[in-house]
Design brief:
The protein is of the alpha/beta class. It has helices spanning 37-45, 58-61, 107-112, 130-144, 148-168, 173-206, 231-240, 242-248, 276-297, 315-328; strands at residues 2-12, 15-21, 27-30, 69-78, 81-90, 96-99, 102-103, 115-118, 215-220, 259-264, 269-270, 303-306, 332-336, 350-357, 360-366.
């Protein structure tokens, strides 16, 4: 099993101090808008690599007006081991991580815990720009291969340097060769990781009977540009693209321009053309497929963070989601505005209410 057994937030956004004692069941959190529900999910997300589900800077998370920094601590059950996990920021410092009392890099969090989340901003995933879909896919890819984050960072750093040269009008090929070699190595890993993740998602969808629709998935490039998937050909592609890139002042081809295309399989309709409810159902379907695939790959389903998950789901699909989460055995942290949204969960979940007084959030467990 993969689950938090306790969670403590200190000076984290609206929470001066919050403690949850957990037993592995799903966690249903209700409260009015602005009470601080999402802040709890964000704190959990900081126990994984990266900037969390809001993609906030570490300073934005610090509770104000104190400005003391913040800290999240947890006991994590990861398969058959228990880990003490801490991540924090001291005022004026950088985010730090400690696992079992030893300093650790953020990527180490991804080795002991896998997390997948769905937040309201994703409801428009299919109708907005490709950037959001790439982040969505990369987050799922990281759940299978935590080192994917390092490959993305390496590629983006080298690409920024190349873009600077392009904007400065530098035409000496020697300046580009080394950067493009770095980009090609990282891009090969990125493409391979993404394709592997997509393959696992597609298999997980096909092998499960679910109340949520199946999506046909593929990776595309703008204007159907061909993107090689091996290092030598990618390096050549970057070099051949220089004249066009000079004109644009930026790199026009590469995995940074890939897009995740999805089609509602049963209807043959592109996700962007589906109804709002269908788009949300497709998102939930992918999250569940990700969880099933990880249960096989990692040995346990991921911790799920489902913020305002009831939005755009009718009562039948909401109940079906809860049944599938419980059948998976996943610890899902779910938020909603009222307890009635989680009535179908009953005692299959622990229930909490969040309220606030003068900008300070309070959380208490409630009976079902």
């Amino acid at each position: 099993m993969l689950a938090l057994r306790d969670l403590t937030l200190s000076h984290f956004r609206s929470h001066r101090l919050a403690r949850l004692s957990l037993d592995g069941r799903p966690v249903a959190i209700h409260g009015r808008n602005g009470a601080g529900k999402t802040n709890i999910l964000e704190a959990v997300s900081m126990l994984s690599p990266g900037r969390g589900l809001r993609r906030a800077t570490v300073d934005e998370i610090t509770r104000q007006p104190e400005g003391l920094g913040w800290k999240v601590t947890a006991t994590l059950q990861s398969l058959h081991q228990m880990h003490e996990v801490e991540t924090w920021l001291e005022a004026g410092g950088a985010r730090q991580v400690r696992i079992d009392a030893k300093a650790a890099p953020q990527i180490a969090l991804g080795r002991i815990a896998r997390m997948v989340w769905l937040v309201p901003v994703m409801d428009r995933l299919w109708v907005e720009g490709a950037d959001g879909r790439r982040r969505f896919l990369d987050r799922m890819t990281m759940s299978f291969e935590p080192s994917h984050a390092d490959a993305v960072l390496t590629y983006e750093k080298a690409m920024r340097e190349r873009n600077r040269l392009l904007k400065d009008g530098q035409r000496d090929s020697h300046w580009y060769d080394a950067l493009e070699a770095q980009m090609a190595r990282a891009a090969t890993e990125i493409i391979d990781n993404r394709n592997t993740a997509l393959s696992q998602l597609i298999t997980a969808q096909a092998q499960a009977e679910t109340a949520f629709p199946t999506a046909n998935l593929s990776l595309t490039q703008p204007d159907d540009t061909y993107l090689p998937n091996n290092e030598a050909d990618l390096a050549m592609t970057f070099a051949e693209s220089r004249p066009r890139d000079f004109m644009a002042g930026r790199t026009l081809i590469g995995p940074h321009r890939s897009d995740l295309a999805a089609t509602y399989a049963a209807k043959g309709i592109a996700a962007r053309d589906c109804s709002t409810g269908e788009q949300k159902a497709l998102l939930v379907s992918l999250i569940l497929a990700n969880s099933r695939a990880l249960a096989r790959d990692f040995g346990a389903p991921p911790i799920l963070l489902l913020d305002e998950v009831a939005a755009h789901l009718d009562a039948a699909r909401r109940a079906a989601l809860y049944d599938e989460v419980c059948a998976l055995g996943a610890q899902a942290f779910m938020t909603g505005t009222g307890p009635e949204l989680f009535a179908d969960l009953g005692d299959r979940a622990s229930h909490y209410e969040v309220s606030d007084t003068d900008g300070t959030s309070h959380i208490k467990q409630v009976a079902t």
